[in-house]
Each structure stands twice: as C-alpha cells, then as structure tokens.
Amino acid sequence: MIQKGRTVATKLRRRPQQISRWTGGSLIRTDAKTAAFVLSEHKKHTNMKPKNTICLWFDKDAHEAARFYAVTFPDSKVTAVHEAPGDYPGGNKGDVLTVEFTVVGIPCLGLNGGPVFRHTEAFSFQIATENQEETDRYWNAIVGNGGTESQCGWCKDCWGLSWQITPRALSDALAAGGGEAKRAFEAMMTMKKIDIAAIEAARRG
To answer: Is residue 163 within 8 Å of 156, Cβ to Cβ?
Structure first.
C-alpha cells in the first residue's frame, strides 16, 4: 500500500504541471508552457493599437480634456502623450501633439490641431446612467467645468464636445413604443437634464 502511494506520488511529480483555463465556455487543461504562451499572446494582443480609434480635434487642450474625462467617467484614463517632432501649422516642435485616452472604455486620440476646426453636435458621446444620482454627477461635472446645458439630456463641455447623459429609464421608456413612449418623449422634450422620476411618471400616464 505504501509502495503504491509512493509510485503515484512519483508519477504526479513527473507529470507536467496542469493548468485549467476557460475558453469558449469549455474548461481546457493545458501544461505550464502552453499557458505561458497563451498569457504572452494575450499581453501582446492587449498592447496592440485598437483597430478603430475616435480622433477628436482640439485647439491645444487635448491633454487637459483627456485628464478631465479620466477623472469624471469610469473606465477612463490617459494612456499616452506624444510631443510634436517638428513645427506644424497648429503648433511648434515639443508641443503636445496627440494624447491617447479612453472614455468609458472607448479608445480615443486627442489631436491638438489648432483653432481651424470646432466640435459640433453632429458628434457626441452618449453615456448611459443607472439612476438620478449618476445622471446628476456627470451632468454637473461637465456643466460645472465651464460647459453649457442644452436640451433633452444634451450638454456641452468647455472644449465644445457634446455629451448625451441618458438614463436607461429614458431609453427603456422610448423603446416601449405606443402611448408609453409618446408620453415619455413629450416629457423629455421639456427637459434639459433628464428627470428620471418625471419620465417614469409620464410613462405610467
């Protein structure tokens, strides 16, 4: 019995280390060498430049804007800052030319291209909120930092970029269709910042 136990223990020591990992909903067992390769490939993939990036034109404040977005919204951060290698129409060598950042997980590039082009409402970020507290927090952060209020949940930050601070309660009401959607829509049209309680009351009729 003791001999049999020693034999099993020896076999376990000689067996390559087994690591379990989930992939595609299935549990796959792989050895340590394969696991290291998978981890390496994962890191390589996550460090790659995204296939699609939103490029936002700023006069000269891309870094300031990116830092504001990073502290205001979750899953947002500044990831890189690049200086101009030479003079260009919007600035000089050594100026901050581009800033890489994410806004709620969306990859963006801020370009300090000078005052030639301005943001318009033709482009906006739509931020879904879960409750009134979150809606108020984002709205007040943007408007309170030199931004301006608009209608129907839209506001504009001090760099001219438009934001839709949109409670899920509003999206759900409009998606309901029929009388519920009509009443919620009519209530929304009277608002600047969205009042969730008023939207839900209108939906109920």
So the answer is: yes
Q: Is 14 exposed, middle or buried (0-12, 13-18, 19+ CB in 10 A)?
A: exposed
pLDDT at 90: 83
First to last CA, the chain: 78
CA neighbours within 13 Å on the CB side: how many for 177? Answer: 0
Give the 3-state secondary structure of 134-182.
HHHHHHHHHHHCCCEECCCCEEECCCCCEEEEEEHHHHHHHHHCHHHHH
Residues paired with residue 26 on neighbouring β-strands, in sequence order: 23
Model pTM score: 0.76
Q: CB–CB of 78/101 below 8 Å?
A: yes
Measured between alpha carbons, how far is 125 from 143 in angstroms, rounded to an integer? 15
CA–centroid distance for 59 within its chain: 23
Measure the CA–CA gap between 56 and 64, rounded to whole angstroms: 13
Alpha-helical (H) ranges within 1-49 are: 2-14, 32-46
**pLDDT single digits (tens) 147-156:** 999 999 999 9
